Amino acid sequence: MDLLRLATAGSVDDGKSTLIGRLLFDSKSIFEDQLESIEATSAERGDEHTNLALLTDGLRAEREQGITIDVAYRYFTTPRRKFIIADTPGHIQYTRNMVTGASTADLAIILVDARKGLTEQSRRHSFIASLLRIPHLVLAVNKMDLVDHDQDTFERIRAEYIEFASRLEVPDLAFIPISALHGDNVVDRSGNMEWYNGATLLHHLEEVYIGSDLNMVDVRFPVQYVIRPQSSEHHDFRGYAGSVAGGVMKPGDEVAVLPSGFTTRIRAIHGPDGLVEQAIAPMSVVVQLEDELDVSRGDMLCRVNNQPAVTQDLEAMVCWMSDATKLTEGSKLAIKHTTKWARALVKDLRYRLNINTLHRDEDATSLSLNEIGRVRLRVTQPLFADDYQINRTTGSFILVDENTNVTVGAGMIRRTD
């Protein structure tokens, strides 16, 4: 049984939290005490129905305002697949939260209120999903019950979104009319929209194919930890622990170790339950090599003839996440790329991107909270990097303020020099 990571996004009051609550409720993935709690809270608030949004809106401020502020994660399983849901905020001031929650998603659900159609926030979140290279997108036209389940309304929104999405990089796009409040086309097919012949939302989530989304060609294994047991029984054991970031590794494969460039072969691969015949992303394994080489945290195993760029110069799209400082030319920050730490200098801010209009402001001199721009960086130590579109793990990094140890930026590599 495989795992699908999905994120919800959309404008405020489009029903993201209600949709997730409906998915959990109709798929029988919540406990009785949870249901009793939200029923009691709904009654105290004077809600007409049991407010399923309370399953994900856990902060007191969220429940009082009826909005999502933090990223809420929920887990559920059906007979066909396991799911991790990230309920991300819709407010523009929480763009950084959406970037964080959606950064590992395989699929994004963009909710649209059928009465309002596409909004500025719908377009902004769609662009961010495209920027993050989320391979599968679902436009869920919600609150169809409030437009009398009108097919023309759905088709108009669908046509408008297709025109907008033509400017984005979206490999897979689906459209589903739903009513999260009443459960129409969420888990069960709706009898109110017989004109819709497609899959329900849950059926689509269960069946969407994600096997081809992984990079199975470019072997990338950032070393996180060197394992050297001190017991007499394992005195000669030396293994390298980490998560596979790409490709397929098997015992006997020839690999190169970066940055040294020395080559060797894989002796064995250990998983949580013992030896494994192969390791693919995102498995966490321990790799044993045939030769005793100097390999430490931050180094990388890769194919001899298929290596990432070894570079100190990066060009990346950066989402700025700090409200205390701004990113400017000359800023000095710590950078964490895979398992490697270094220091970075901002050489140039090429442009700031207006994520509502996609306009590039080449006269911009800084990035403030929640702003996104293209930046050139110079790093003190060579990084082993790929373009983000090739590998989302080796193509991404975070920036950290060295004075406060606060994560202030998230970057997606667009070019390595």
Put the structure in a nutshell.
By secondary structure, the chain is of the alpha+beta class. It folds into three domains: 3-212, 3-Layer(aba) Sandwich (Rossmann fold); 220-302, Translation factors (Elongation Factor Tu (Ef-tu), domain 3); 309-416, Elongation Factor Tu (Ef-tu), domain 3, CATH 2.40.30.10. Helix content is 18%, strand content 36%.
Q: Which second-level CATH architecture of the largest domain applies?
A: 3-Layer(aba) Sandwich
CATH class category label of the largest domain: Alpha Beta
Count up the domains: 3
User: DSSP strand (E) fraction?
Assistant: 35-45%
Indicate the percent of residues in helices.
10-25%
Strand tally, please?
25
The mean pLDDT is 86
Distance between the termini: 40 Å
What are the defining features of this structure?
alpha+beta; Elongation Factor Tu (Ef-tu), domain 3; six-stranded mixed beta sheet; 417 residues; eight-stranded antiparallel beta sheet; 3 domains; Rossmann fold; globular
Could you characterize the architecture of this molecule?
This protein has seven helices and 25 strands. The protein has 417 residues and is of the alpha+beta class. The protein has three domains: 3-212, P-loop containing nucleotide triphosphate hydrolases (Rossmann fold, 3-Layer(aba) Sandwich), CATH 3.40.50; 220-302, Elongation Factor Tu (Ef-tu), domain 3 (Beta Barrel); 309-416, Translation factors (Elongation Factor Tu (Ef-tu), domain 3, Beta Barrel), CATH 2.40.30.10. A hairpin with a 4-residue loop joins strand 20 and strand 21 (359-361). The protein is globular and about 70 Å long. The relative contact order is 0.11.
